[in-house]
Amino acid sequence: MNEEESLNRAIYEEVAIFPYDKEWPLLFEEERSRLLHLFPSRFLAIEHIGSTAVPGLSAKPIIDILAGVATMESADALLEPLCQSKYTTSMEFNASLTGRRWLMRWSEGRRTHHLHLVVHGSKEWQQRLAFRDTLRTHTEIAMHYERKKQAWAAEFRSDREAYTAAKTSFIQDALRYTEK
């Protein structure tokens, strides 16, 4: 499989949930170190988010990385250098986003990492960390989320956007619950 075929397979990869893998935190640390080495002083912080950051939680085996930048302009300036460093992105998709930029890393026809560039300390930054921390500290919410994700993955197996949209209301409800 050549690089273009690998990328196309990764882009259209079906949604699938896998049991927790103790390697996920190590894969995050490796990529965090690589990013900090390639782009010294460009990130204000780099955090492991998403289900792979929650011990024991089943997840899509894609490491979600939250990288804090000073401004969205600095995020935009990083897109091309990141694409030269084993990431890819859709400029059209990023143009539809407010408050963040998104990139994907892939290997052998599957997604391996999602990189979310967000202004450090912004509402988007705080919400993503708050949801991760909610799942880490509220086992019952994490297990309910896992069951829902498995159902959504079955329902939206070949529609990643619908799968992501289905998660949105759960995430908002979980954040409201923990704010009480």
UniProtKB/TrEMBL annotation:
Superkingdom in the source lineage? Bacteria
Protein name stated in the entry: Glutamate-rich protein grpB
Q: Mind giving the lineage of the organism this protein is from?
A: Bacteria, Pseudomonadati, Pseudomonadota, Gammaproteobacteria, Oceanospirillales
